[in-house]
Amino acid sequence: MSSRSKIPRPTVKRLSLYLRELESRADLEKTTISSKQLGSALGLTDAQVRKDLTYFGQFGHPGIGYEVTELTNRLRQILRADRKWNTAVVGAGKIGRALMAYQRFPRKGFEIVAVFDTAPDVIGQVIAGHRVRPMEDLPTLVAQRDIKIGILTVPHDAAQKVADSLIDAGVLGILNFAPVRLEVGDAVSVTSVDFSVSLEQLAFQVSLGLTGSLDEHECDQEGGG
Amino acid sequence: MSSRSKIPRPTVKRLSLYLRELESRADLEKTTISSKQLGSALGLTDAQVRKDLTYFGQFGHPGIGYEVTELTNRLRQILRADRKWNTAVVGAGKIGRALMAYQRFPRKGFEIVAVFDTAPDVIGQVIAGHRVRPMEDLPTLVAQRDIKIGILTVPHDAAQKVADSLIDAGVLGILNFAPVRLEVGDAVSVTSVDFSVSLEQLAFQVSLGLTGSLDEHECDQEGGG
DNA sequence: CGTTGTGAAATGATTCACAGCT
DNA sequence: AGCTGTGAATCATTTCACAACG
Hints:
Distance between the termini of chain A: 20 Å
Number of strands of chain A: 10
Shape of chain A: globular
Strand content of chain A: 15-25%
Oligomer: homodimer
């Protein structure tokens, strides 16, 4: 369909932010929004917003702006946020539990449909409505429940092994909370969140006063598909 | 001191990753590491690593590489990771509690020295060794305990108000887990972590197979100092 | 030799500025 | 008037390629 010539990586990262902003305005009186308004809500220029959006087609109305519901729907399509994604959490520690209870995931279409851990005393427990399974069940459940995304919340020294298991089982994307770079093949995507690295960069900005600062979202690696 | 001409923002983000990698090799036999080795451990080219490092001086040894301990120390200095940072957690919900127990923070020099919440039944409780205080105590404690960084784990509709309180109290950096862009002045830095946005981008990569994918770490806003 | 440091070239991303639509 | 879409210009970042060093 549309001319998907070449999408800059930063654009992709901003798309989710556009959608988040629009969703938070869904119940506002205004039914349209201009690139300038959307941009200033996110600290971006109007030109940036327009450039980003036109990579995916032309859905603005000159003189008017963008229709909020129309743009919201288009962004959901583009980001595949209009379908359900089944996910598995591996690691029922503190962070894993916080994510299991994170109400925003289901609302955004991300359903946690399986939880795994190795600790015998945790296996079998029901946490936030999810029964914790042993790692042996992973291959079967990933296949059975059509799990495409794994959420990794295990200690760093277990991360690579768990990632390998997830990939062997057929998972195509991993949200990694362990402070290591995961080695994965071309067919698998990884997005890493490292709280310490985030704090470290914040501390650097604070101490140096890096004006303008950094943008972007999370750390990703290889991609593919 | 050194010629800090102009540091690209992506470089700053990679510095923490270099340090993380080096720290994980501290007890290995090899006492030196080449830009090629360091780079390939992080999915970067050797030239990239060298360029990044030389923004801060020349501490490599031609024909040899970099001395691991020397480079580690230099990076700690550069990132101000060689000192202690006092932080406060606002919001003693699931995510806040997970961070309070996060062992990596103290090891990296980030000490949580105060915890706040609004819920009367939570105030006074001791969680992971931290007594939860009412918001009224925030200004005093931030000053008393020399807190420079705030960690925000409150619902999105409370985030801006809490950020304002933190800034009024003198905090200079905010690690924001609420899914909103915080409006802050030039003197304050913000780094945002939005789990839903991360998952959304991962899902996009998975579905589109965006080869090469995205880099970077977390989402930041204005900066300052 | 292998490896650093670094200008120069290439690539990538943002901003400008304006034609054209409402 | 207000706004989008977009080529061209600017700015930023990465990669190349090689001299100099151990």
